[in-house]
Amino acid sequence: MSIGVHNIGQGCVTCLDYDEHYILTFPNGYGRQVNVLLGIFVCNALSILTVPWIELGGECSINCSKTGYNASIIFHTKPFYGGKKHRVTAEIFSPNDKKPFCSIEGEWNGVMYAKYTTGENAVFIDTKQMPTIKKKVRKLEDQEDFESRCLWKDVTYNLK
């Protein structure tokens, strides 16, 4: 049993200090449920324990038109038998190059490792060691009508 959300469209992240705009696509999201058999068939009855989890899956890209750098990212879904959850691989390309200068692999919610064409290997990021940073959001009364928090305020209120 699972439910999937297939994201369409793209996002834009702007680095103001460098006047760079990154266009990115998003992975699909899945709410999964694994059924683990605890017993054997007895009079057509079966004991099942469900263990839900969220996972990302699919291909994404990040492109910067100013620099020409781009990345191809694959979020791997867990196979039915064996395998790991939350796996991600990525390749980063210099402008006009067909071969990546850096490959990244690991878990998107854990540690990711980088392998460079120079032969250097390094920890790319360890999300478990990153500090939690409180997000900064403008007050509701300062937002435009179609900004997310203003637009969804009634839904948020009723969900709470």
From TrEMBL:
UniProt cross-references to Gene3D superfamilies, sorted A to Z: 2.40.160.120
Assigned GO CC terms: cytosol; Golgi apparatus; membrane
Pfam families: Oxysterol_BP
Organism domain of life: Eukaryota
Stored InterPro entries: OSBP_sf, Oxysterol-bd
One MF term in the entry's GO annotations: sterol binding
Signal peptide limits: none
Name this protein carries in UniProt: OSBL9 protein
Protein's gene: Osbpl9
